Amino acid sequence: MEQISIPTLGLISVNCAVVIGNLLVLYVILTCKTLHTTTNRLVLSLTIADLLLGMFILPFAIIQDSAGWPFGSIACKIWINADIFLSTASIYHLLAISFDRYMAVRQPIKYPIISSTKVVRFMILLVWLFPFLLASGMFTFVNADFEKKEQSNQTECKPTTLDDGLRWMSGSISFIIPGIVMIILNIQIFRTVVETSRSMTIKSKNGSLRVHRKQPIIIKESIDPTLSLNKLVRPKKIDDLPHNLPQPDHPQPEKDPKDKEKESQTDPEKSDKVLKKSSTIDSPTLRHLISHTVVFGVLEAKKTNIINHITQKRMARRSMRTEMRVARTTGIVVAAFIFCWTPFAILYVSDIQVPGIIFTIFFWLGYANSAVNPLLYAIFSRDFRIAFKRLFASKNKATNF
């Protein structure tokens, strides 16, 4: 039995990392309800693309690099076009995620439309359909070099064996154009987040929080409860009050005795009601109670306004911190994509001749991007970190029993 070489072990390790990492992300997204968001729908579809790449493309790449291609020209064309399809689908998912974050930060008013279920499903359909059409076109226009190589006993099956025009077309559509667009979108995202954060800081320092530093509100009526009461509850007509009630602040002129007798004879019930009402209104205890109620009502309203203002500021800052974290995670994922795929894209488009080991490293560095994405989400996304911790914590509790 032949021993497996160290480079082959490295390729097998990358393949296992791609499959296991994306399986974990897939399981966490499906089982954790807090991750059922618009962006994570796209992440879920990206995970499926990377998982299919690890299951159906990478094992044949290991065979190709370690022992050559033993499956014939037709299988080689199918494998290369399947590789183009899944790799391009993975890249276009990253583009869709960047566009989703761009709309969330730059166009918050229009974002509810973008984040609707129908629109997200349509975006997912596009990022799968467009790479499929590209791969189908590549499969149709591939030249007959595969048959010639098979007849001359050449067992090499690599994408660089395609014509220059096909390589330029597939390289531009699969990597160059979406890569440039992703860079522009993420630069705009970070500029918007930084500018919004600065504007919020300036407002909080220069004006929006001054309401907390005002002097205590003093209501003059609270000093003189009787005056406040007279302004609030004194009847419009003084003559409506009986003459015999005590009025220390504003004494009323006495009426003629004949008028008193007429009022008592014509409407005795009204006289009793007015008497009770006046005695109740002019009670010193009630006057103080109403005065303090008015004062505390005004203070409570001011306090409620201040609390609402503070709550809105905290919610805005919390939302901005969330957007900043998501933008940071997306930016790191896009940066990893640029780092992993740029070397191979340069070789693929320009057909630069390099040693075989260099080509293998660059070729597999692009594949490694599918293994890096789950790690980046686990490290830099707080929601994914919490979900992974719960997953492993529940498994540890299960093993302890």
From TrEMBL:
<feature type="transmembrane region" description="Helical">
    <location>
        <begin position="168"/>
        <end position="190"/>
    </location>
</feature>
<keyword id="KW-1133">Transmembrane helix</keyword>
<keyword id="KW-0297">G-protein coupled receptor</keyword>
<keyword id="KW-0807">Transducer</keyword>
<protein>
    <recommendedName>
        <fullName>G-protein coupled receptors family 1 profile domain-containing protein</fullName>
    </recommendedName>
</protein>
<dbReference type="InterPro" id="IPR017452">
    <property type="entry name" value="GPCR_Rhodpsn_7TM"/>
</dbReference>
<feature type="region of interest" description="Disordered">
    <location>
        <begin position="238"/>
        <end position="279"/>
    </location>
</feature>
<feature type="transmembrane region" description="Helical">
    <location>
        <begin position="42"/>
        <end position="63"/>
    </location>
</feature>
<comment type="similarity">
    <text>Belongs to the G-protein coupled receptor 1 family.</text>
</comment>
<feature type="compositionally biased region" description="Basic and acidic residues">
    <location>
        <begin position="251"/>
        <end position="275"/>
    </location>
</feature>
<feature type="domain" description="G-protein coupled receptors family 1 profile">
    <location>
        <begin position="21"/>
        <end position="377"/>
    </location>
</feature>
<feature type="transmembrane region" description="Helical">
    <location>
        <begin position="78"/>
        <end position="99"/>
    </location>
</feature>
<keyword id="KW-0812">Transmembrane</keyword>
<feature type="transmembrane region" description="Helical">
    <location>
        <begin position="356"/>
        <end position="380"/>
    </location>
</feature>
<dbReference type="InterPro" id="IPR000276">
    <property type="entry name" value="GPCR_Rhodpsn"/>
</dbReference>
<feature type="transmembrane region" description="Helical">
    <location>
        <begin position="326"/>
        <end position="350"/>
    </location>
</feature>
<feature type="transmembrane region" description="Helical">
    <location>
        <begin position="119"/>
        <end position="142"/>
    </location>
</feature>
<keyword id="KW-1003">Cell membrane</keyword>
<dbReference type="GO" id="GO:0005886">
    <property type="term" value="C:plasma membrane"/>
</dbReference>
<keyword id="KW-0472">Membrane</keyword>
<feature type="transmembrane region" description="Helical">
    <location>
        <begin position="6"/>
        <end position="30"/>
    </location>
</feature>
<keyword id="KW-0675">Receptor</keyword>
<dbReference type="Pfam" id="PF00001">
    <property type="entry name" value="7tm_1"/>
</dbReference>
<dbReference type="GO" id="GO:0004930">
    <property type="term" value="F:G protein-coupled receptor activity"/>
</dbReference>
